[in-house]
Write a structure and sequence with these properties.
The structure is a homotetramer of 81-residue chains. Chain A is α+β, with helices and mostly antiparallel strands and 81 residues long. Chain A has three helices and four strands.
Chain lengths: 81, 81, 81, 81
């Protein structure tokens, strides 16, 4: 699901519409805020593009990114059908 | 699912946790704002209590409430398992 | 601002409209999730009613509630005009 | 505030932190959903980058984009200090 390249974890997800995409973003936002580790992400309509890396460590992939990615994947059973 | 009593549609939903409950609320909020018809609702942790009635019509159940209820039910395939 | 009665902190806030009320709720939701201490709250259109108490301590007001109340008050400069 | 270039309206906004940035995004999301006209946007921590254009018209700036930009500006008194 996640592609590791250029020192970051990448994933693009398509939803049914904007409302579903933004609800997903809200859930990710909660997780990120709780972990105090935030994604770089973009959205247009039903598409969400995620890029995870650790800025404080010089923009490389760390354990924090893998944990955030795993937590996002756990949302999957609810959101990614 | 919805109970009609005392001139309102009532429904209580339990989620896994607060984060899932609030993501559901965000989706309902979008629908409500788009319809310009808003619920009376309460939340504590994983529980959301909804009450739908039309204030401008003297707090009775109208077609607007039934449409909002139906739209919330359509979220069901994603959220209510 | 907060009234302490019946073993809980109470506050009612009126916003301009639903959209502003729900944006406020989103911010409170983030704080609550981060603190792992969640409010009992209700909303209808532009009104948000908050009730804070600590369930695990037998529904009394504890330091957790005072911290959550203070964090909500800090949002005030942005939201409560 | 908005810069028009390459057939789109652009604006970058810095907030205090992620929580404030995402609350702003939530408000924009409501407006967008109500207008049925959605932004292309990106976020990392406290930064939100907006790009508005009309896809159905061949990715040019239309009246829809100007209306969305104006509605976002109206949030300004609350969010942009």
């Amino acid at each position: 699901m996640w592609e590791e390249k250029e020192n970051a974890l990448h994933r693009t997800i398509l939803f049914k519409d904007f409302s579903e995409a933004f609800a997903f973003m809200t859930r990710v936002a909660f997780i990120a805020e709780k972990m105090d580790h935030h994604p770089e992400w973009a959205n247009v309509y039903n598409k969400v593009v995620l890029k995870l890396s650790t800025h404080s460590m010089g923009d490389i992939v760390t354990e924090k990114d893998r944990k955030l990615a795993a937590a996002i994947d756990k949302l999957g059973s609810v959101f990614f059908n």
